[in-house]
Amino acid sequence: MLRIATLFVCFFLTRSLAQTPKRPLHASDYDRWENVRSENLSRDGHWITYQVDPQDGNGRLELADASRKTVVRRFPRGYMAQFTPDSKFLVMRLKVPVADTRKAKLKKKKADEMPKDSLLVLTLATGETRKLANVKSFMIGKDSGSWLAVLQDANVPRLLAETKPTSKKDTLLPTPPVSTTTVAARKGGVAKKPKGDDLVLLNMADGTRRTVSFVSNVVLSDNGQTIFYSRESARDTLKAGEAIIPGVFLFNTATGQTMLVDSSSKTKLYKGLAVDKSGKQLAWMTSTDSAGADVRIFTLRYRNMAPPAVPKGKRSKVTTIEPPYRTLVDTVTSALPSRWTANEYREPKFSDDGTRLYFATSPIAIRPSKDTLTPDDEKVKMDVWSWTDSRLQPMQQKRLKEEKERGFLTVADLTTGRVTLLANQEIPTVAFDPKVTTRYLMGMSDLPYQVQSSWDPGHTDLYLIDTQTGEKKRIAHDVMVSQPRLSPGGTYAYWFDERDSLWRAWSVADNKRIDLTRSLPSKFFDEEHDTPSLPGAYGAAGWTTGDRYVWLYDRYDIWQIDPTGREKPLNLTNGWGRTNKVRLRRADLDPDEKDINPKDELWLTGIWESDKHTGVLKATPPASGPAAISLMASSMHRYANIAKAKNAPTMTFYRGNFKESTNLFVTDTTFASPIQLTKTNPQQDSVSWGSVELVKWVGTNGTPLEGLLFKPEGFDAPGKKFPMLTYFYERNAETLTDYRAPSPSRSTINIPYCVSNGYAVFVPDIVYTTGQPGPNAYDCIVPGVLKLLERGNIDRARLGIQGQSWGGYQTAYIITRTNLFRAAEAGAAVANMTSAYGGIRWETGVVRQFQYEKTQSRIGGTLWDKPMNYLENSPLFFANRVETPLMLMHNDADGAVPWQQGIEFFTGLRRLGKPVWMVVYNGEGHNLTARHNAKDLSIRMYQFFDHYLKDAPMPAWMKDGRTAVEKDRGEMKY
């Protein structure tokens, strides 16, 4: 009998727990919602690290054993992790605890007084750790080496601790700080704040450690053998009277020796340090001007540490002494125009093969004139706007720092010593890739078209630049191009010509243009492009070894093109993508790849257009002909960030969908048994979440349309009706399988929050024609809403609409056309296209004309050519028709849509006696950036919709407003 009673109780409890209702999301849930990112595989494929970070608070770094497919250690606040190339050590930074940073802010600490990160070194074989405090940066050899270079803040005490793997503490043991009063006493004067930081050099293999004070810059060779650093002028405060030699120094990790490379009492600044991959070649910049000088002139110096090569069988009878360094560029370098010299704002960079040094040069700045006789309040402050200016004054102001620091690419041939100016003031942009060394580089110039770029952007000229002579050959004049670049071997320049919708190439050897895709049956331009501008390309996968073929994307497949024309174009994926309506794209598994090896297997990602699910595919090596495609993984998820260990078959990828938080998986190249490494956001299981489905309907103009319907739990139960919010921005149907985390609103509704709190959410796609953006939105959105109402479980009397920016404009427009919606919220909405047309996007200084004539606003002509289109698409001119209560957000530092637009619409509706509110976040831009402001907006926006769509009480700020006096008192009034 007792047994029966016990079973009954267990059964009853199990049933009760199973039926426990899930709670809706609350604003307090936002901060702890996690995301996984920054995955990193050791080269041997044995180890994996990744970060798991909450939206606000302390995150963690996890270390997983790929062979066991399990997490072996967790490091609180770890981030920016790197494995050493030999896969023996893991180095990471540890963030300052959030609470410590907050306390420092409350105490109004200065930036240099704020708590600093620490650093942890883990020996993977033993689990032993070493820690360093007050870390500003660290670096390890990219290709080899066991030495670690760490810059520590010299303004706080240095700390070092070692712990065993069993230690549970996360503490740093302090060492006594150097007293500045003691320093002053030793020097017999007032102590000065030392320049530079402490450089800690640590051999992770044997524990050898060295510290160098007053270091300002440091670089480490890829092979880990050379640590090159600079020191500033100072006195050693620990050894009274001992001078610190300013200069640049080399530390050889193989010998443990330090060498002075360059030093001079006249030199005040050393910067721009560079070292080649082998660690043998050094470059640096020096200046005799102080850091505070109005104009600083720099010299570029170079030294090769390798001993000179001596031909076999020959011995020189004369002993020659190599100079300590060679001056590559100074103010009298003949290869440069008069009064040019090295540019300090661009770091020199060696080519991977060590034969070249790329750097920047520029004219010596004109010394600014200073008026010391006129009081500041009497000085004239004005701008001159001239119709002859190539750029408008606001754009010039936005680019002032960029222009003052502008440098022009220059190259030094290190085998001959020849310096060649590649870019100049007529062709300011020249691209280079240090991984390859080609004779010609590609240059671009939009200077002749800068005036017209205000309304017709994108025009440019293309050039080939000879690295040996500096000769510049124009290969394309006044073209509209996408993705112009050079093939890896430098045999071809290539680009997508938007005017002709063709991929083109320029043969360097033959000095002629080649049409790569002419007469091919596929379209290589964006078939869904719907603005008045020219469509861009689907892109290029790259070139095969030796520049033999270029791989280009159409909408679905990959094409292999022989630029010589000897072979016919080949559809590498054999039409599989088009046949199955799957958009195939190559997965780039090697970030250091120079070109594509056609003998390797071809890894692909795919998006199925029919239902928007995604997958991972693999094809046979293209070198054997059209690929045979195998499906490795496919489901109603978003697969992303496929990665592979450099020297092992270990692979990782992310997978998630609306219901499943995005997590990291580990597998191998067979993809046979993927294992989920992370389990983020387990709290979601206790939250009412909902689901999503793809919906289809036909627009007013007969266009087939798609969209997403997010449904609360219990949505399909008979007899129930739900309020619905409609949110939109261009097209979103392809995001069906995306995971959406609950988070504060920067400007738009948070879909999981709304669904969890009982709203259905409709996200329709919009297809546009030129000249009618407002009616196009109406013709797509309203029929979609009416179609959903036919299902019977959406309350027609409780419909809301919300949009931001372009979506905010269309929200404002739609409520002038229909009373279907009971409440609307519009963020940063353009209300008056006629006044917005000639306004400035203050974040860039660009005039807004191009936006209306060519891009998103889609009018397709000037204000004087199409005045009625501007008027008919402007909500302000039909404000008297609005019957829908409206909440606006328009911030006073909006750099994209002028704040005046929100004011115009608000004041118009206010005068008409329409219910309208506008929230303005002071100092915020187009979208909110401060998290506390986003939380505030979330509260107010959901209060607004809840009042109108759920009959919730009207909050105080809507009922009574918030006066300037109440704001001054700090009353938030929710």
Quick synopsis:
It is built from 16 helices and 55 strands.
Describe this structure in words.
The chain is an alpha+beta fold. Helices cover 14% and strands 33% of the residues. It contains 16 helices and 55 strands. The strands form 11 sheets. Strands 5, 6, 7, 8, 9, 10, 11, 12, 13, 16 and 17 form an 11-stranded antiparallel sheet that branches. An 8-stranded mixed sheet has the order 46-47-49-48-50-51-54-55, sandwiched between helices. A 7-stranded antiparallel sheet has the order 27-28-29-30-31-32-33, with no helix packed on it. Helix 8 (773-789) packs across helix 9 (806-814). The longest helix is centred in the C-terminal third of the chain and has 20 residues, at 931-950. It starts with a helix and ends in a 5-residue tail after the last helix. The model is unreliable at 1-17, 158-191 and 234-241 (pLDDT under 50).
